[in-house]
Design a protein that fits this description.
There is one protein chain. Helices cover 59% and strands 0% of the residues. It has 6 helices and no strands. The protein has 103 residues and is mainly alpha-helical.
Length: 103
């Protein structure tokens, strides 16, 4: 089942984290506070870490947010990007380099 199907399924609207699903589907910016609330409900084996010391979920949300921002901005300063992504400049640079490297 893809994200579109889950979003359109009326049963998901009553779940506690429907707002995350909606933002993913509508390509809207997701705040890290929302991610942390969701992560609190994950089991330890669902909290795998990446080389950048993010959880897999955090990394996916950062990538989602970069793509969401690309729908809004055609040009953005690095300082503004770090504020919107809610990460340090070093982590933003690693994230962007990794995304560019992965294509």
């Amino acid at each position: 089942m893809c994200i579109r199907d889950r979003y359109k399924d009326d049963r998901t609207r009553i779940t506690p984290h429907f707002n995350l699903l909606e933002k993913m589907y509508l390509e809207r910016l997701i705040k890290m506070e929302e991610v942390k609330k969701f992560e609190e409900e994950l089991k330890p084996h669902q909290k795998g870490k990446t080389l950048e010391d993010y959880t897999v979920l955090q990394r996916a949300v950062h990538e989602h947010n970069v793509l969401a921002l690309s729908k809004i901005y055609t040009n953005i300063s690095f300082d503004q990007l770090t504020k919107l992504l809610q990460v340090s400049p070093d982590k933003a640079e690693l994230l962007m380099a990794s995304m560019i490297g992965e294509g």
